[in-house]
Every structure is written in structure tokens, then in C-alpha cells.
């Protein structure tokens, strides 16, 4: 008898109602692929972009989800033992092949990172893609060092909170923005040194705190705020474009001399599973378990609540990471 599973399928772009929980056959892994029994998965802007029809290179119908956390259920090559705790992310998950919004997912072994932790699955499910992107943005994207100042544009997003925690842990001074005045307290409680209310133009506020401009800035809102973020950054400082909470990522009629302040550097970061070293993942999990580090709040849903979760994601109702626990 064929094994079946429940999964979230998107057949065509549209509102959250287009997300359907269906019964599908459990997928079979081929050589070089691994089947994971999914325990939890995080929601990402990538899946929102796919649902809204904004993502390129996606084929439908598709089980969404660019990340998942769970245990190895089958590895035809015998490399990973059954029951091994793993996370998987990126590499086409939920875009060109079925992803993590399911009870089981099959992914290339190259996208799988093993770990060992007694943390709850909803905590583990919140980490993979957020940690990979925050870590990569601060290292590859910004080369952030202890003693430097960092501005995070979009500070109450899951990625913004994770980046603030990692940057503070490194020894940087962190400024982070929120559009909601009532969330500044949450940013401060999370360890942000200077919470800022974002009205679309915060460069002057930043320079009241750091007159020469910040050493580094992480742009998570998108192209609407990028010029102002660049204006808040010092000469020879670096802005890393990583996120697009605004769902806008194109700079039209880009004229570098007119767009970039003299001497301010603009980079970007978009990483894969290989960009998150297993040691960094394990060390982060161990420090969270010891109470030494927090990457921000986690909001948990069931699989049948996926539409509500997507509404909350799209409307920015919650600060922190949204996770589905199976």
C-alpha cells in the first residue's frame, strides 16, 4: 500500500486561500538525495513571493518551503543514518522541487546539515534559513568586526532579530529600525543598543548617534529605503542588501555616481546551505540551549493553520519567526 503524507500545495499564485493542505504520496529519494521526516519548518519571504507570483524560476503546482528541520527517514546511499537530526534549506527547495511544507521532503544531500540538540522542534525549525542568512550577511556581506557600529533596516523581522543577536554577540554596537513605536521596547529587550522608529528617512537620526555614519548596514526592507540606508553609512562603510520586506528589490535607472554616496560600498548576500558551517549551527544551538543566546521570538502554527501563518507573514503582524510544527 502506498504511503501518503499531508503537504501544503500552491497550484497558482494568489491570496493565502490558494494554499491547500493535500494528501500526497510520500516521495522516494534517489541516489544523492535524502528523505527527511519533517518536524517543523519556518516561513520565509521567499515563499510569500512565490505565493504572490513575484518569484522567478518557480514551477507550479509545488509544495512550498525553502527550509525544514527533522530527522533522516531514508538515505539510499547510507551516508546519513535513519533518525539523525538534520536541517535542510535552499538549493531549489519549494521552487524547482517540492520543499519543506510537508510531513516528508526529499532533498539533495548537499542541502542537509546534521546536528544534535534537545531543543524543542519549534525552536529548531526557526533556525536554518534565518541563521544562514544572518551569519552570511554579517560575515561575507559585511565582514563585521567587534567594536564596529551596525544599522539593521527592518529590525523586528526574524532575520533582523537574528542579525542583531549575532552582531551583539560579536561585540558590535547595534542600531535597528521598526515602523512601530510600540516595538522599540522589544528591540531594546533583545539587546539592540539604539532602537529607531523608521519613518522612511532615518539617516539623520543615525548620524545623531554616530555622526560619521555607521560602519556597516544591513538592508532588509528593500530598494525603497536603500538610498537612505546608504546615506546613514560612513565613507568606506558597507551596506549589504539581503532582504526585501517591502517586496521591492529592483533599482530602476541605476546611475551609480548619482545613487551611491561617494566612498560607500554596496554589497549583497544570498546564501545556500553550504554557507552555514555545521560547526556554526551546532555552536548556536548549544548556546541557545544554555540560555546564552536568543535569536528572537518564535510563533508556532499547525499545518492546518498555514493560511493564517501566511496572512501574519504578509501583514507583518508578528515580530520574530513564524514556524509550523507538525
TrEMBL record:
Entry annotated with the keyword Transit peptide: no
Pfam families: ADH_N (PF08240), ADH_zinc_N_2 (PF13602)
Origin: domain of life: Bacteria
InterPro entries in the cross-refs: ADH-like_N, ER, GroES-like_sf, NAD(P)-bd_dom_sf
The Enoyl reductase (ER) domain, residue ranges: 14-324
Keywords, alphabetical: NADP, Oxidoreductase
Gene Ontology MF: a single term: NADPH binding
PANTHER family: QUINONE OXIDOREDUCTASE PIG3 (PTHR48106:SF18), QUINONE OXIDOREDUCTASE PIG3-RELATED (PTHR48106)
Protein name per its UniProtKB record: NADPH:quinone reductase
Amino acid at each position: 500500500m502506498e504511503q501518503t503524507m499531508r503537504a501544503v500545495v500552491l497550484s497558482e499564485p494568489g491570496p493565502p486561500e490558494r494554499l491547500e493542505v493535500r494528501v500526497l504520496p510520500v516521495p522516494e529519494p534517489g541516489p544523492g538525495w535524502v528523505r527527511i521526516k519533517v518536524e517543523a519548518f519556518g516561513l520565509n519571504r521567499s515563499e510569500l513571493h512565490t505565493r504572490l507570483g513575484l518569484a522567478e524560476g518557480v514551477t507550479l503546482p509545488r509544495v512550498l518551503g525553502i527550509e525544514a528541520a527533522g530527522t533522516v527517514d531514508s538515505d539510499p546511499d547510507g551516508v546519513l543514518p535513519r533518525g539523525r537530526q538534520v536541517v535542510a534549506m535552499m538549493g531549489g527547495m519549494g521552487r524547482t522541487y517540492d520543499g519543506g511544507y510537508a510531513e516528508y521532503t526529499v532533498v539533495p544531500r548537499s542541502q542537509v546539515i546534521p546536528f544534535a540538540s534537545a531543543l524543542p522542534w519549534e525552536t529548531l525549525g526557526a533556525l536554518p534559513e534565518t541563521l544562514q542568512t544572518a551569519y552570511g550577511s554579517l560575515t561575507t556581506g559585511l565582514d563585521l568586526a567587534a567594536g564596529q557600529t551596525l544599522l539593521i533596516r527592518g529590525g523586528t523581522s526574524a532575520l533582523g532579530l537574528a542579525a542583531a543577536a549575532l552582531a551583539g554577540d560579536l561585540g558590535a554596537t547595534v542600531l535597528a529600525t521598526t515602523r512601530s513605536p510600540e516595538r522599540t521596547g522589544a528591540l531594546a529587550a533583545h539587546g539592540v543598543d539604539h532602537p529607531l522608529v523608521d519613518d522612511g528617512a532615518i539617516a539623520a537620526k543615525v548620524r545623531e548617534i554616530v555622526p560619521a555614519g555607521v560602519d556597516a548596514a544591513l538592508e532588509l526592507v528593500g530598494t525603497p529605503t536603500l538610498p537612505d540606508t546608504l546615506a546613514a553609512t560612513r565613507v568606506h562603510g558597507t551596506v549589504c542588501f539581503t532582504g526585501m520586506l517591502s517586496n521591492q528589490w529592483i533599482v530602476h535607472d541605476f546611475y551609480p555616481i548619482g545613487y551611491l554616496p561617494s566612498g560607500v560600498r554596496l554589497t549583497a548576500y544570498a546564501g545556500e546551505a553550504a554557507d552555514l558551517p555545521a560547526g556554526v549551527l551546532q555552536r548556536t544551538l548549544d548556546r541557545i540551549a544554555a540560555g546564552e543566546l536568543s535569536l528572537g521570538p518564535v510563533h508556532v502554527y499547525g499545518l492546518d493553520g498555514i493560511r493564517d501563518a501566511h496572512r501574519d507573514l504578509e501583514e507583518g503582524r508578528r515580530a520574530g519567526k513564524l514556524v509550523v510544527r507538525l
